[in-house]
Amino acid sequence: MDTRKKVLIISASARRNSNSDALADSFMEGAKAAGHDVEKVSLADKKIGFCKGCFACLKLGKCIIADDAPEITEKIGNADVIAWATPIYYYEMSGQMKTMIDRANALFVKDYKFRDVYFLSTAAGEEEDCDERAVRGLEGWIECYPESRLAGKVFAGGVNDAGAIKGHKALQEAYDMGRSI
Q1: How open is the CA angle 179-129-16, to the nearest 5 degrees?
Q2: Residue 99's closest CA among 111, 89, 113?
Q3: Beta-sheet strand order (sheet of 6-11)
Q4: H-state helical runs in the chain
Q5: Which of 45, 61, 86, 175 is deepest in the core (most CB within 10 A)?
Q6: Residues near 32 by beta carbon (within 8 Å), at least 6 away in sequence
Q7: What is the mean pLDDT of the segment spanning 5-25?
Q8: How deeply is 74 buried, as exposed, middle or buried, from its count of CB atoms within 10 A (0-12, 13-18, 19+)?
Q9: Average pLDDT of the chain?
Q10: What is the spatial distance between Cα 180 and Cα 30, in angstroms, rounded to a whole number?
Q11: Is the dihedral of CA 112, 118, 119, 120 positive or negative?
């Protein structure tokens, strides 16, 4: 029996080589080391417009807006495991991540494969609960997919400038979490 899983990592930072992207890379390396098929999508170079609330996606099974979101949504629906990586802005997920979540609404009426969802986040703030509101936001999305669950999270606080995460214990935690899939 093949135990390899299809893992999709969505890096939601607008900044290239960001701290949350480094966390995503560590998770990815761990998942690859465990023998899984892993793909990482960076939203930094994608064109993703805001959801218009027209609900055409619920009738058509895909969004009618012609940008990069429908392709990413398809990848989300076909993955066994999803990992969202985001910087925390004002105690919440990045706008890029929230916009992609909104645009993936077509999955609501489709047969999705993902069961385990992971949350990787970084912030300048170091408070242990700095990511709490963002986690709750992601849990709201997960709740709409009853076969899925929040399988784990890693938070790296005290990292603001690009590269500040180097040597942070969260990198190993992300690697170990990816490896444990």
Answers
A1: 60
A2: 89
A3: 37-42, 6-11, 81-87, 116-123, 149-157
A4: 19-33, 56-60, 69-78, 95-103, 132-143, 169-179
A5: 86
A6: 38, 178
A7: 95
A8: middle
A9: 95
A10: 8
A11: negative
Residue listed under structure tokens 């027209």? 54
User: In whole angstroms, what is the distance from residue 140 CA to residue 118 CA?
Assistant: 14
pLDDT for res 81: 98
pLDDT band at 24 (very low <50, low <70, confident <90, very high): very high
Burial class (CB in 10 A: 0-12, 13-18, 19+), 170: buried
- Which residue, 63, 61, 67, 60, is CA-closest to 45? 67
CB 156 within 8 A of CB 165: yes
pLDDT at 36: 98
Q: Report the top-level CATH class of 6-179.
A: alpha beta
